[in-house]
Every structure is written in C-alpha cells, then in structure tokens.
Amino acid sequence: MNINKSTLNTKYKHIFFILHICMGMTSISHAKILTWKDNIPSSLSQFQNNPEQLAHLAQDKIVIYTLPATKTSLPTLKTDPNPIANFTTAAVVVPVSPSAVEKTIGNYAEYVGLYPTLKSAKILERSGNITQVKYKVSIPTPIPVLNFNEDVTFQHQLDKNSLASIVIDAPIPYGVGKIEWFRLAENKTLITLTQWGDLNHPKGFVFSKIMNAVPEAKLGIPSGTNTFILESLRKRFSANTKTTTLSAGEFPQVYLSPAQLEKVSQLSQNTQHPVSFVHLPSSVPYKHSNENLRFVTTYQYYSQSPQQLQKWTQPNAYKMLFPRQIKSIKTTALEHGSQDAEFKVSVGLGVINIPFHFKMNFNYPNATSNAFYANGGDLKYIKGTTEFNAHAKGTLLKMVTAMKIDEKAPFLIRAARSLPYHDVLPTVGGNVVFAEKIKAKN
Do residues 345 and 327 make contact, with C-beta atoms less than 8 angstroms apart? Predict the structure, then answer.
C-alpha cells in the first residue's frame, strides 16, 4: 500500500481519534452545577440486595451483566429526560476495607495515576457532596506528534457507599453511572459499577461517521468501559495479582455451582444480553516461550436448540455475522475433522479501512463446540473455545477467548497497543458482539 507521508499522518490521526473516543473519554467544556436526582438501579437488584451472593459469583474475576430495562433520569437530554435504559453492571472483589475504597473513590485528584491516560483532574465547582470535575485525558501513540489531549467533564454526587456521576460534556454526551462498594469482611470489599450511555447521539462529524460505519461497536462499548474502570480499581487494590499457568490446550475455568449457572442463565434470559467473566492473567505455552494472555468467558442464552446453533462453530459462518469486516474465508480440511481457515479482513472506521489477514486452526470436540487458535498471519495470539450446551429448553452459549496484539504485528494494528488494557478490552467487547450478533441472526 503506497501512501505519502501527509496521507499517512492523516490516517493515523483518524485511527487514534477513533480508538480514543470509543473508550468514551473525551470532551471539551463544562457547565454549572446541574440539578439531578440519581435513580440509577442498584447493582444488587438482581441478587436479592445481597452483596455476598454477587461476590460469590464474581470470585476472583470481574463479572459483567446487564440489568432489565428501566427508566432513568437524564436532564441533559432535553428531548427525553427520562429515557428507557439498559444499564450494564460490573463487579469485582478487592482485598481492602470499604473505607480504603471510599477514600480513593471520593478523591478525584487521585484518579490521576488510577485510570490510565488520565493526566489531570480540575475541580470546577463544588456544592456540598456534589462536585463538577474536568478531566484531561492523554493517549500516547507511536508518533509523538499524534498524542491526544482531550477533556471530559463529569458531575459527581458522593453518598454513603456510592458515587453517582452524570456526563456534562463528552462526545458521548448523555450518560450516567454509579460506583458502589459493599463490606464483605474487615479487609474485603465488593465494588460495582452500573452505567448507561446513549450511543445514538454522538457529537462530532467523525465520531458520527464511525458509529454509522461500525454499528457493532455500540454492542461492545458498555462492557469494555466497565472493564476499563474496574480493572483500574482492581490493580490499585490488588497489587500482587496471581498468574495461572495453563498446559497446552487448557483454558481457565469459571467454577459455578448449578445454582450459579442457573443464575447466569436467568440474567441472560431476562435481558437477552450476555454475562461475562474477565479472568486474571494466564500463562500460556507457545513454542518460543510462555505468553501472558487475558481470557474472557461469556455466557448467552438462546431459545433455539444446540443443533440449530451449531453452524456458528464453523469459520465460514463468521462471514454471516460480520459481512462488512470479513472479506473472504478460505478453509482447508485436515485429518481428524479439523480445518485451517484463512481470514481476510478490512475494518472500516468511517474514514479509513485497515486491512489485515490471519490464519486459524479449528477442531471440534463434538458437533456443537469448537476450539481454535491462531497459526499464522497478522494476529499471533488468539485462542478460544465455543460451546452450545442444552439448557432450560434452549441453549446456553459458553465461549472462552483471549486475544493479544504482539509487538511485531503490522504497524496499523500494533498501534492499538497504545490503548490501556489492550490485552483484554478487545476480547471483552468482541465476545459480547459475537454473542449479540448470533442472537440477531436467529
């Protein structure tokens, strides 16, 4: 691909602008203190208001689920100040006291150093427990002149065991969220984040074009944003994170009791959205050495039978799910029923297309499951498994995947390594998009 330096710089600017705003973290100005009464649903509303029940489900992972649709209060959205919202909740258990969590959550200046890319926090106005803060976000890139420096303004309302926030100004201009913390033991706290943003009214010409060009991004952004915030808090309070060493072909497990598995199924059935678990790092053997990967396990309930859904274990079916992005799939049959598949992909971001290709090996333990791994091309570190298991007169999808962009990937792809948590956020969003797209096709 031959392009001149001016065109290249323009394309890189577009790429990093796109990646940055898709994290929902840019803005320009601020307004006066807003009259707003928080009516964000509690993260425990689906768990009998019992933090222990949710903590036992999360275990040592971040768990992400959707709440049933409800009305919320959004006075910034003048055309509809009480929209119907599907809030996304994430939860994690940390080994510190609730007072330690409250001290950090309530100190906005301390967010610098807590959340990657956040460079400053300036208090604009304060009235009692209400504070309006302008944050400056900077994302470094491989080309220094393309570093991003943007602003976002929130209004925070600190209460006992919670911090509710409303977006005052941002490219995603309408959104609310609430962090809650619950005592489990003297030095054990459950932290939850419940938030919703209106992704149908983006500000800015370029962002609007991107959201139109890649509508799938809307499906993955809520889970990705929740993971970004809770991963930051987990790292702050759990400095010594253990890494699980896996053997060849092994995947990390979510150990659920029958009652917990039924709860996961009910959460998905009630909202028609997935439930995901973000694992701690795993050390995975490769020929050259072991690589640290972050796996995500996602469950989704479907009313169809496993046999009706088994086509989605086949690589050729992926083009039906992602017709805009996947340009071609070439498969080669191997012995024992496995196959290699070569994907040619072009990701359209509204202002630029990023072409790349990669190869995958698929094998099939049974007719309704697969296991796959990358074995060539521009993406080296992809591993996963997909299972469609009979459950409650339908099917419960279980998919476990990990993806990491390596240091020697083509430059346009490698640039994504500039984003925080690049080893887990794409997997979180990708799992959700995959599960949601199957639902839309059935």
Answer: yes
Task: Give the containing element (helix H, strand E) for 56.
Answer: helix 51-58
Task: Determine contact, residues 163/179, Cβ cutoff 8 Å.
Answer: yes
Give the tens place of pLDDT for each residue, 4-61. Answer: 444 434 434 443 333 443 444 333 344 589 999 999 999 999 999 999 999 999 999 9
**pTM for this structure?**
0.90
Amino acid found at 81: P
Q: Which residue(s) pair with 112 in the sheet?
A: 115
In the chain, % helix, strand, coil (3-state, to 5) comes to 30, 35, 35
Please list the alpha-helical segments (H only) found in 68-216: 98-105, 205-213
CA 327 to chain centre: 25
**pLDDT at residue number 208:** 67
User: Distance between CA 418 and CA 407 in Å, rounded?
Assistant: 11
Q: Using the CB atoms, write b or e for 191-230: b if 16+ within 10 Å.
A: bbbbbbbbbeebbeebbebbbebbebbbbbbbbbbbbbbb
Cα gap 64→410, rounded to integer Å: 32
Q: What is the DSSP letter of 161?
A: T
Question: DSSP letter string over 243-283?
Answer: -EEPPTT--------HHHHHHHHHHHHHHT--EEEEPPPEE
Q: Which amino acid is at 343?
A: F
Quick check: 92 and 101 in contact, CB under 8 A? no
